[in-house]
Amino acid sequence: MRDFKAYAFSLLRVRSRSEFELRTRLKEKGASREEIEEIIGLLKLYGLLDDKEFACEFARSKARNHWSWLKIEMTLLHDFRVKKEHVEVARGCYDEDEVLNYYIKRFKKTKKDPEYIKRHLLQKGFDWDFINRILKSL
Predict the structure, then answer these.
(1) Stated pTM of the model
(2) Confidence of residue 1 (pLDDT cuts 50, 70, 90)
(3) Which domain holds residue 126?
(4) Do residues 117 and 132 both lie within one domain?
């Protein structure tokens, strides 16, 4: 048990994790269901495992990397299995203006064709409202 706790703490030292991600990693290491439940409970008790906070941190981080909200939302829901209500809270942590300003500066500098810009941003998961805001700013 002590080794699994140490393993969980070492994973959380690198970056925050979703509960699903941590459960999966512990299971892959061979922890029993009871050990996993005890470790998860302990981490939650100490405030070290919180899916709502994880979702917010993830949204902030990916906004800095210019991800669309749709891509962030799908990743949180499908890859990290974060509850929908936590994802909705994380929406408030996503700085769309930061992403918008990045793409406006980028496309002003490169002077890309509007059709290229549309295709590029659609492929990245941005909606038409976001794309049109960029095109109007160029």
Answers:
(1) 0.88
(2) low
(3) 52-137
(4) yes
